[in-house]
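Dear colleague,

Thank you for sharing your sequence with our group. We've completed the structure prediction you requested, and as agreed, I am returning the results in plain text so they can be pasted directly into your records. Please verify that the sequence below matches your submission; if there's any discrepancy, let me know and we will rerun it promptly.
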Amino acid sequence: MADDLYQTLGVSRSADPKEIHRAYRELARKYHPDVNKDPGAEDQFKRISEAHEVLSDPETRAQYDRFGPNFRQYAAAGAGAGGAGRQPPRSAARSGGSPRYSTWSSASGAASADGGIDWDDIFGDVFGASRGMDHSAELELSVEEAYRGGRRTIQLEDPSTGEVSTYEVEIPPGALDGQRIRIPGAGAGGRRDGGRGDLVITLRVRPSRRYRLNGADIEMDLSVSPWEAALGAEVKTNAPGGPVTVRVPPGSSCGRRLRLRGQGMPQPGGRNGDLYARVKIAVPSKLTDRERSLFEQLSRESSFDPRRS
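Please find the predicted C-alpha coordinates below.
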Protein backbone atom coordinates (compact mmCIF):
# COMPACT_ATOMS: atom_id res chain seq x y z
CA MET A 1 0.00 0.00 0.00
CA ALA A 2 1.34 3.41 -0.94
CA ASP A 3 2.54 5.70 1.84
CA ASP A 4 0.24 8.52 2.91
CA LEU A 5 2.10 11.66 1.85
CA TYR A 6 0.92 13.65 4.86
CA GLN A 7 2.19 10.94 7.21
CA THR A 8 5.48 10.84 5.30
CA LEU A 9 6.05 14.52 6.14
CA GLY A 10 4.48 14.17 9.59
CA VAL A 11 1.86 16.88 9.03
CA SER A 12 -1.92 16.96 9.24
CA ARG A 13 -4.14 17.07 6.15
CA SER A 14 -5.05 20.66 7.03
CA ALA A 15 -1.42 21.81 7.13
CA ASP A 16 -0.72 25.09 5.35
CA PRO A 17 2.13 25.51 2.80
CA LYS A 18 4.52 26.94 5.40
CA GLU A 19 4.03 23.94 7.70
CA ILE A 20 4.60 21.54 4.79
CA HIS A 21 7.79 23.31 3.74
CA ARG A 22 9.07 23.51 7.33
CA ALA A 23 8.49 19.79 7.85
CA TYR A 24 10.23 18.99 4.59
CA ARG A 25 13.26 21.10 5.51
CA GLU A 26 13.67 19.29 8.82
CA LEU A 27 13.37 15.84 7.23
CA ALA A 28 15.65 16.75 4.33
CA ARG A 29 18.36 17.76 6.78
CA LYS A 30 18.03 14.38 8.45
CA TYR A 31 17.82 12.01 5.47
CA HIS A 32 19.74 13.65 2.62
CA PRO A 33 22.26 11.05 1.27
CA ASP A 34 25.13 13.54 1.45
CA VAL A 35 24.55 13.86 5.19
CA ASN A 36 23.01 10.55 6.30
CA LYS A 37 24.92 7.42 5.27
CA ASP A 38 22.61 4.96 7.04
CA PRO A 39 21.00 2.22 4.91
CA GLY A 40 17.54 3.26 3.86
CA ALA A 41 18.18 6.99 4.27
CA GLU A 42 18.24 7.56 0.51
CA ASP A 43 14.93 5.78 -0.02
CA GLN A 44 13.33 7.75 2.81
CA PHE A 45 14.69 10.97 1.32
CA LYS A 46 13.10 10.13 -2.02
CA ARG A 47 9.76 9.53 -0.32
CA ILE A 48 9.77 12.84 1.54
CA SER A 49 10.90 14.66 -1.64
CA GLU A 50 7.98 13.18 -3.56
CA ALA A 51 5.59 14.09 -0.75
CA HIS A 52 6.85 17.67 -0.74
CA GLU A 53 6.64 17.94 -4.53
CA VAL A 54 2.98 16.86 -4.52
CA LEU A 55 1.76 18.70 -1.43
CA SER A 56 3.60 22.00 -2.04
CA ASP A 57 1.73 22.55 -5.32
CA PRO A 58 -1.92 23.53 -4.77
CA GLU A 59 -3.12 21.77 -7.93
CA THR A 60 -1.41 18.42 -7.37
CA ARG A 61 -2.33 18.55 -3.67
CA ALA A 62 -6.00 18.99 -4.59
CA GLN A 63 -5.76 16.03 -6.98
CA TYR A 64 -4.10 13.90 -4.28
CA ASP A 65 -6.75 14.86 -1.71
CA ARG A 66 -9.49 13.94 -4.17
CA PHE A 67 -8.16 10.74 -5.73
CA GLY A 68 -5.58 9.44 -3.26
CA PRO A 69 -2.30 7.69 -4.15
CA ASN A 70 -3.45 6.97 -7.72
CA PHE A 71 -4.17 10.63 -8.46
CA ARG A 72 -1.63 10.79 -11.30
CA GLN A 73 -3.52 8.11 -13.25
CA TYR A 74 -6.82 9.96 -12.82
CA ALA A 75 -5.20 13.26 -13.81
CA ALA A 76 -3.63 11.68 -16.90
CA ALA A 77 -6.98 10.15 -17.87
CA GLY A 78 -8.65 13.54 -17.48
CA ALA A 79 -6.02 15.22 -19.66
CA GLY A 80 -6.40 12.56 -22.34
CA ALA A 81 -10.15 13.13 -22.37
CA GLY A 82 -9.68 16.81 -23.05
CA GLY A 83 -9.41 17.95 -19.44
CA ALA A 84 -7.22 20.82 -18.46
CA GLY A 85 -3.55 19.90 -18.03
CA ARG A 86 -1.38 21.16 -15.25
CA GLN A 87 -0.48 24.82 -15.67
CA PRO A 88 2.38 26.67 -14.03
CA PRO A 89 1.45 29.06 -11.23
CA ARG A 90 0.77 32.52 -12.54
CA SER A 91 1.17 35.79 -10.72
CA ALA A 92 -0.34 39.12 -11.59
CA ALA A 93 2.05 41.62 -13.12
CA ARG A 94 1.17 45.09 -14.25
CA SER A 95 3.02 47.20 -16.80
CA GLY A 96 2.03 50.66 -17.85
CA GLY A 97 -1.25 50.45 -15.92
CA SER A 98 -2.69 47.51 -17.85
CA PRO A 99 -3.00 43.94 -16.49
CA ARG A 100 -0.12 41.60 -17.30
CA TYR A 101 0.48 38.02 -16.28
CA SER A 102 3.87 36.54 -15.59
CA THR A 103 5.09 33.14 -14.54
CA TRP A 104 7.26 33.45 -11.42
CA SER A 105 9.57 30.66 -10.37
CA SER A 106 12.98 29.98 -8.87
CA ALA A 107 15.86 28.16 -10.49
CA SER A 108 19.27 27.15 -9.25
CA GLY A 109 20.76 27.56 -12.72
CA ALA A 110 20.51 23.93 -13.81
CA ALA A 111 17.66 21.45 -14.05
CA SER A 112 17.63 18.79 -11.37
CA ALA A 113 15.49 15.89 -10.23
CA ASP A 114 14.59 17.72 -7.03
CA GLY A 115 12.91 20.58 -8.94
CA GLY A 116 15.50 23.25 -8.02
CA ILE A 117 15.20 23.03 -4.20
CA ASP A 118 17.36 25.55 -2.35
CA TRP A 119 19.60 23.08 -0.51
CA ASP A 120 21.70 25.86 1.03
CA ASP A 121 18.57 27.15 2.73
CA ILE A 122 17.76 23.64 3.99
CA PHE A 123 21.19 22.61 5.25
CA GLY A 124 22.26 25.89 6.82
CA ASP A 125 25.87 25.69 7.97
CA VAL A 126 26.66 22.38 6.30
CA PHE A 127 27.91 24.26 3.22
CA GLY A 128 29.78 27.53 2.78
CA ALA A 129 28.55 30.85 1.41
CA SER A 130 26.50 30.63 -1.77
CA ARG A 131 24.75 32.93 -4.18
CA GLY A 132 20.96 33.10 -4.03
CA MET A 133 18.78 31.44 -6.64
CA ASP A 134 17.55 33.31 -9.70
CA HIS A 135 13.89 34.17 -10.02
CA SER A 136 12.26 33.99 -13.45
CA ALA A 137 9.17 35.68 -14.86
CA GLU A 138 7.48 36.31 -18.20
CA LEU A 139 6.39 39.70 -19.51
CA GLU A 140 3.84 39.89 -22.32
CA LEU A 141 4.14 42.61 -24.98
CA SER A 142 2.24 43.55 -28.12
CA VAL A 143 4.18 43.70 -31.39
CA GLU A 144 3.96 47.51 -31.27
CA GLU A 145 5.34 47.62 -27.71
CA ALA A 146 8.16 45.24 -28.63
CA TYR A 147 8.98 47.36 -31.71
CA ARG A 148 9.20 50.62 -29.77
CA GLY A 149 10.82 49.27 -26.62
CA GLY A 150 11.09 51.58 -23.63
CA ARG A 151 10.87 51.46 -19.88
CA ARG A 152 8.21 49.37 -18.16
CA THR A 153 7.22 49.35 -14.51
CA ILE A 154 6.01 45.90 -13.54
CA GLN A 155 4.73 44.34 -10.35
CA LEU A 156 5.24 40.67 -9.58
CA GLU A 157 3.53 38.72 -6.84
CA ASP A 158 5.43 35.75 -5.45
CA PRO A 159 2.79 32.96 -5.22
CA SER A 160 4.60 31.27 -2.35
CA THR A 161 4.73 34.31 -0.07
CA GLY A 162 2.19 36.75 -1.54
CA GLU A 163 4.84 39.48 -1.48
CA VAL A 164 4.53 42.04 -4.29
CA SER A 165 7.70 43.60 -5.71
CA THR A 166 8.03 46.46 -8.23
CA TYR A 167 10.73 46.56 -10.90
CA GLU A 168 11.80 48.92 -13.67
CA VAL A 169 12.49 47.00 -16.88
CA GLU A 170 14.18 48.53 -19.92
CA ILE A 171 12.81 46.88 -23.09
CA PRO A 172 15.22 47.26 -26.03
CA PRO A 173 13.65 48.46 -29.31
CA GLY A 174 12.93 45.48 -31.55
CA ALA A 175 12.63 43.00 -28.69
CA LEU A 176 11.93 39.46 -29.92
CA ASP A 177 9.77 36.69 -28.50
CA GLY A 178 11.79 34.62 -26.04
CA GLN A 179 14.40 37.34 -25.46
CA ARG A 180 15.60 37.55 -21.85
CA ILE A 181 16.31 40.55 -19.68
CA ARG A 182 18.30 40.11 -16.48
CA ILE A 183 17.88 42.36 -13.43
CA PRO A 184 20.92 41.76 -11.20
CA GLY A 185 20.31 41.28 -7.50
CA ALA A 186 16.51 40.96 -7.77
CA GLY A 187 16.43 37.22 -7.08
CA ALA A 188 16.53 35.22 -3.87
CA GLY A 189 18.90 36.21 -1.09
CA GLY A 190 22.16 34.30 -0.79
CA ARG A 191 23.52 32.58 2.30
CA ARG A 192 26.18 34.35 4.32
CA ASP A 193 27.99 36.70 1.89
CA GLY A 194 27.03 34.83 -1.26
CA GLY A 195 24.97 37.70 -2.70
CA ARG A 196 21.49 37.74 -4.20
CA GLY A 197 20.43 35.97 -7.36
CA ASP A 198 18.97 37.74 -10.39
CA LEU A 199 15.51 38.22 -11.83
CA VAL A 200 15.42 36.83 -15.38
CA ILE A 201 12.46 38.11 -17.41
CA THR A 202 11.51 36.29 -20.62
CA LEU A 203 9.67 38.49 -23.12
CA ARG A 204 6.60 37.03 -24.85
CA VAL A 205 5.39 38.96 -27.91
CA ARG A 206 1.74 38.21 -28.56
CA PRO A 207 0.21 38.51 -32.06
CA SER A 208 -2.55 41.02 -32.61
CA ARG A 209 -5.37 41.21 -35.14
CA ARG A 210 -3.09 43.34 -37.32
CA TYR A 211 0.49 42.22 -36.74
CA ARG A 212 2.27 38.89 -36.31
CA LEU A 213 5.92 38.33 -35.46
CA ASN A 214 8.09 35.72 -37.19
CA GLY A 215 11.59 36.05 -35.77
CA ALA A 216 12.59 39.62 -36.58
CA ASP A 217 10.07 39.82 -39.46
CA ILE A 218 6.63 41.38 -39.09
CA GLU A 219 3.66 40.02 -41.03
CA MET A 220 0.43 41.92 -41.60
CA ASP A 221 -2.67 41.81 -43.81
CA LEU A 222 -3.09 44.50 -46.46
CA SER A 223 -6.67 45.14 -47.55
CA VAL A 224 -6.98 46.22 -51.20
CA SER A 225 -9.91 46.76 -53.51
CA PRO A 226 -10.56 44.44 -56.47
CA TRP A 227 -9.42 47.11 -58.93
CA GLU A 228 -6.22 47.83 -56.95
CA ALA A 229 -5.40 44.13 -56.99
CA ALA A 230 -6.16 43.82 -60.72
CA LEU A 231 -4.62 47.07 -61.97
CA GLY A 232 -1.86 47.54 -59.39
CA ALA A 233 -1.57 50.42 -56.96
CA GLU A 234 0.53 52.13 -54.34
CA VAL A 235 -1.30 51.63 -51.07
CA LYS A 236 -0.56 53.66 -47.95
CA THR A 237 -0.96 51.85 -44.65
CA ASN A 238 0.34 51.87 -41.09
CA ALA A 239 3.13 49.65 -39.78
CA PRO A 240 4.58 49.44 -36.24
CA GLY A 241 7.31 51.87 -37.30
CA GLY A 242 4.87 54.38 -38.82
CA PRO A 243 3.17 54.99 -42.20
CA VAL A 244 4.49 53.00 -45.18
CA THR A 245 3.60 52.76 -48.87
CA VAL A 246 3.21 49.28 -50.32
CA ARG A 247 3.48 48.77 -54.08
CA VAL A 248 0.86 46.25 -55.17
CA PRO A 249 1.81 44.76 -58.57
CA PRO A 250 -0.95 44.32 -61.18
CA GLY A 251 -2.70 40.96 -61.02
CA SER A 252 -2.11 40.41 -57.29
CA SER A 253 -4.36 37.68 -55.95
CA CYS A 254 -5.47 37.28 -52.36
CA GLY A 255 -2.67 35.84 -50.20
CA ARG A 256 0.24 37.29 -52.18
CA ARG A 257 3.08 38.37 -49.86
CA LEU A 258 4.71 41.71 -50.56
CA ARG A 259 8.05 42.38 -48.96
CA LEU A 260 9.25 45.70 -47.56
CA ARG A 261 12.92 45.19 -46.84
CA GLY A 262 14.22 46.51 -43.52
CA GLN A 263 10.79 47.58 -42.27
CA GLY A 264 10.53 44.81 -39.67
CA MET A 265 11.84 44.75 -36.12
CA PRO A 266 14.88 47.00 -35.53
CA GLN A 267 17.96 44.97 -34.65
CA PRO A 268 21.45 45.79 -33.38
CA GLY A 269 23.86 46.76 -36.12
CA GLY A 270 21.10 48.02 -38.40
CA ARG A 271 20.22 44.54 -39.75
CA ASN A 272 16.51 44.99 -39.32
CA GLY A 273 13.89 42.41 -40.10
CA ASP A 274 11.49 42.76 -43.02
CA LEU A 275 7.81 43.63 -43.22
CA TYR A 276 5.57 41.27 -45.19
CA ALA A 277 2.17 42.55 -46.30
CA ARG A 278 -0.25 39.80 -47.31
CA VAL A 279 -2.80 40.90 -49.91
CA LYS A 280 -6.38 40.63 -48.74
CA ILE A 281 -8.99 41.62 -51.31
CA ALA A 282 -11.99 43.42 -49.83
CA VAL A 283 -15.24 44.18 -51.63
CA PRO A 284 -17.92 46.76 -50.76
CA SER A 285 -20.63 45.40 -48.48
CA LYS A 286 -23.16 47.61 -50.27
CA LEU A 287 -23.04 48.77 -53.89
CA THR A 288 -24.40 51.94 -55.35
CA ASP A 289 -26.49 51.59 -58.51
CA ARG A 290 -23.57 52.80 -60.60
CA GLU A 291 -21.12 50.37 -58.95
CA ARG A 292 -23.50 47.47 -59.45
CA SER A 293 -23.90 48.40 -63.11
CA LEU A 294 -20.14 48.50 -63.63
CA PHE A 295 -19.60 45.16 -61.89
CA GLU A 296 -22.36 43.61 -63.99
CA GLN A 297 -20.76 45.00 -67.13
CA LEU A 298 -17.39 43.54 -66.06
CA SER A 299 -18.96 40.14 -65.43
CA ARG A 300 -20.43 40.10 -68.94
CA GLU A 301 -17.28 41.19 -70.72
CA SER A 302 -14.60 39.29 -68.69
CA SER A 303 -13.69 35.71 -69.56
CA PHE A 304 -11.69 35.27 -66.32
CA ASP A 305 -12.60 32.18 -64.32
CA PRO A 306 -10.83 32.14 -60.92
CA ARG A 307 -11.68 28.45 -60.41
CA ARG A 308 -9.72 27.40 -63.48
CA SER A 309 -6.79 29.82 -63.24
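Summary note from our side: Residues 5-80 form a domain with the Helix Hairpins fold (CATH 1.10.287.110).

Kind regards,
the structure core
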